[in-house]
Amino acid sequence: MCSVIGVFNVPEAAKYAYFGLFSLQHRGQEAAGIASSDGKRIHIAKGRGLVTQVFDEKKLSKLMGNSAVGHTRYSTAGEDSVLDAQPIFARYDLGQIAVVHNGNLTNAKVVRKELIREGAIFQTFMDTENIIHLIARSQKEHLYDRIIEALHKIEGAYSMVLLSRKKMFAMRDPHGFRPLVMGRLGSGWVVASETCAFDLIGAEYVRDIRPGELVVFEEGEEPRSIQVFKPTPTKCIFEYIYFARPDSDIFGKNVYKLRKAMGRELAKEYPVEADMVIPVPDSGVAAAIGYSEESGIPFELGIIRNHYVGRTFIEPTQEIRDLKVKMKLNPIKEVIRGKRLIVIDDSIVRGTTSRKIVSILKEFGAKEVHMRISAPPTTGPCYYGVDTPTKEELISSRMSVEETKEYIGADTLAYLSISGLLRSVGNDLSYCMACFDGNYPLLPKDK
Ligand code: AMP
Fold it and tell me: Which of 145, 193, 332, 428 has its CB surrounded by the most CB atoms within 10 Å?
């Protein structure tokens, strides 16, 4: 998972990109970068860490010009090194370009191999670099035609923004796995992974970039839309469940509202007698409010989150993951002691978090712990840009719900059903739910 932003025809574009990325930080905390164009040259700065760690006033002031693209990185393809931070920048026969990409390409290895055989020298391990090579090697005269040609050679998930010295291009794959929204900022334009970026910088949402669409931004002209591919939407439902910020509207709907609806459905499907509903913060909060409203059982904050710890999921070793759950979450003993708790989280991946939470809650005196998960069991990996571990590491691919309940030590455990999830999103069938139902819209060509 990652975030992208593009700002076009706005004075001090890099500063807007910076603030936009700040509000998209939840989509990736490993690295951040911005490239800007002053019309003659592209300037770039990127590095490891959070947006506020990578940039300061001095660095930003060097990113001159009225257009910029930016990225926050959460590694799914490539290695965790500064070389693998985006934007990717290149000089080629038509000038200079910078690319930012959210999503994973499913034929990246095949394309990369071919390019290398033809003599391309890769600088990074990221699948995004394929696009740069494809554009640079194309024989077409104009960048626009080269982009279209490159898009026909890649498959998979991409919400992508490309900056040249004078233009900006925003595009989304035909499945539209990842979100990409477009808005107005003064007399200029912005595109971003989520609308929460618009709110911060004062941009006004106009519409989503459509699946299979390429939008070209050029000075003095209205954005030009080209439907490169027929849309076959299978948008990532996990964006609604976990990834996106609740204050964002993506795929045309508000995330918070849908999360609450998931909680409500969960309460209808799996009611249980209890004294209070408590969320695992922050991921379970909206669903817990929905569960509480539907069941009439009071909502309480029984667990407090320390916000200065990164997401536990990112850590490589099991020992550190265990410790980090405790560093991150601590119960309010006064609230939970002697109580029957319904604990809501959005997902169980390896089972580490839930197991720790149940054990901490019991240690501090909870009488009963009923885990309720506002999504179906995660049984398969994602090939489209969500960092899920291998199938073997996913607890739900190895264990039944009953066995998982035993493993995490809860009194009861239940997951929202697939039909319940669908009801929460208005029975709209244009979503990818492959991590829950195994129906992969595209299979990786090289796995
Ligand atoms: P685990 O401890 O492995 O079972 O992870 C479950 C926790 O990780 C839940 O609290 C989720 O909110 C969160 N989570 C689920 N998917 C992801 C993901 N792809 N990246 C980071 N965190 C996640």
Answer: 193
Q: Compute the mean pLDDT over every residue in the chain, rounded to the nearest whole number.
A: 94
Q: Token pair of 374, please?
A: 């506002």
Residue 425 CA to ligand 1 centre (angstroms): 21
CB 8 within 8 A of CB 190: yes
Q: Which of 2, 242, 315, 415 to mutate to test the pocket of ligand 1 (most atoms within 8 A of CB)?
A: 242
The pTM of this model reads 0.94
Residue with CA closest to ligand 1 atom 8: 313
So what's the pLDDT on residue 99?
A: 98
387 lines ligand 1 (CB under 6 A): yes
At residue 308, the pLDDT reads 78
CA gap 38, 31 in Å, rounded = 24
**What gap in Å lies between CA 73 and CA 81, rounded to an integer?**
11
β-strands 95-102, 159-164: how paired?
antiparallel
Q: Which amino acid, residue 329?
A: L
Query: How does 362-375 read in b/e, with b if 16+ C-beta sit within 10 Å?
Result: bebebebbbbbbbb
Task: Quote the ligand 1 centre to 422 CA distance (angstroms).
Answer: 21
Ligand 1 contact via 345 beta carbon (within 6 Å): yes
Closest ligand 1 atom, residue 74 Cα: 20
- Would you say the CB of residue 283 lies under 6 angstroms from ligand 1? yes
Nearest Cα residue to 123 out of 110, 133, 134, 137: 133
**Which residues are CB-neighbours of 363 under 8 A, at least 6 positions away?**
none
* Rounded Cα gap, residues 415 and 404, in angstroms: 11
> What values do phi and psi take at 327, rounded to 5?
-65, -30
Spatial distance between the Cα atoms of 106 and 110, rounded to a whole number of angstroms: 9
Arithmetic mean of pLDDT, 130-135: 97
Q: How far is the CA of 312 from the centre of ligand 1 (A)?
A: 8
pLDDT at residue 311 above 60?
no
Q: Which domains does the chain have, with CATH numbers?
A: 3-233 (3.60.20.10), 254-437 (3.40.50.2020)
CA distance 317 to 312: 10
Q: Residue 232: its pLDDT value, please?
A: 98
Cβ 388 under 6 angstroms from ligand 1? yes
Cα separation of the two ends of the chain: 19
As annotated, the active-site residues are 2
